[in-house]
Amino acid sequence: MNAPVRLIEVEVPGDGRAAGQAYGEAVRDLVRRHHEMIVGGLDRAAAREHALAVRAVTASHAPELAAEVDGVGEGAGLTAADGWILQLRAELTGWNTAAPECSSLALVDPSRPGGPIAAQNADLPPWAAPLFVALRRTPTGAPALLTVTPAGQLGHHGMNEAGVAVFGNFLRTARWGVGVPRYLLTRLALGQTDRHRAAAAVAAVPRTGPRNLLIADDDGALDIETTPSGVDRLDPAGGTLLHTNHFLSARAAEENAPPGWLRNSRARLERLRALLAEAGPHAGPRELAAILADRAGAPDALCHHAADAPDIDIATVVSTIAEIRARRMHVCAGPPDQGAYAVYDLKENR
Length: 350
Prior knowledge:
The chain is an alpha+beta fold. The chain folds into two domains: 86 residues, no CATH class; 252 residues, 4-Layer Sandwich (Penicillin V Acylase, Chain A), CATH 3.60.60. The chain is built from ten helices and 14 strands. The strands form two sheets. It has an eight-stranded mixed sheet with strand order 1-4-5-6-7-8-9-10. β5 and β6 form a beta hairpin. α7 packs antiparallel against α8. The longest helix has 21 residues. The radius of gyration is 18 Å and the shape is globular. The protein starts with 7 loop residues before the first strand and ends in a 5-residue tail after the last strand.
């Protein structure tokens, strides 16, 4: 097994524009590369115009986060609008052609030693892999947090010092619009002190498009399937909570995923269910790492390689396991069948 590869760690205190500027400046080269990967082939003026429309809505609901995004672009030597483009990958590059991305889980059996544990394989275009950083934020008046995210985004997935862990999965519907960007929903949730408040914070804002969020804390987990028109909640069954890329609630009536997408997502969900049944309710980081590295059923495998399906151009670019009560995250940079997990302790934020 290869030695763990640690992501670049960025520590940013404070709030708003100044915090965003510090973040953008700290990883300027990665932010600029990320920006180029999104806008390549786009009408840049139109992208900025849409980004600023999204900013106006977000600023009315989460002004500190909106100011932070402004600062990211400026700190990287770009514009405030460019900072918003970084939060809007699928919204700008084509949600209707995006691939099924990410598998998430939580184990919450009351008898589990150490309390709840949650995890995710993040599947994205392979170009995103070298852009991931471990961003430590210590905002004023809100929990310190650690998010594993492409440089320039305020949050992809992560956990805060109150023990709220948030993981996300792509969903498909025909309705997208102007609202709070899908990736900023993670930061909204990580600003809260328990899973119920986190879910309520996400439900309270208008959203650009559909997004699934699995949210766990010291005492349990829940899942919310969100679309611009509403939010439905899913709860654990038999001590587990699982999600891939198709709707499991009544919101399935809004789904417009093609057959291949649904086949892939359903196969991964069933494989997760089977492997977790074998591992048992007390599975820990070692057992979950083996599950997340599973390659059975490729190209519909939990651990996806870019070569599995070149036409959809995705790979498992990072894998994360959150030991919630321990405030500890295990992160594998790259496909987990080819690497090892480095450990990040949230207590370092305190």
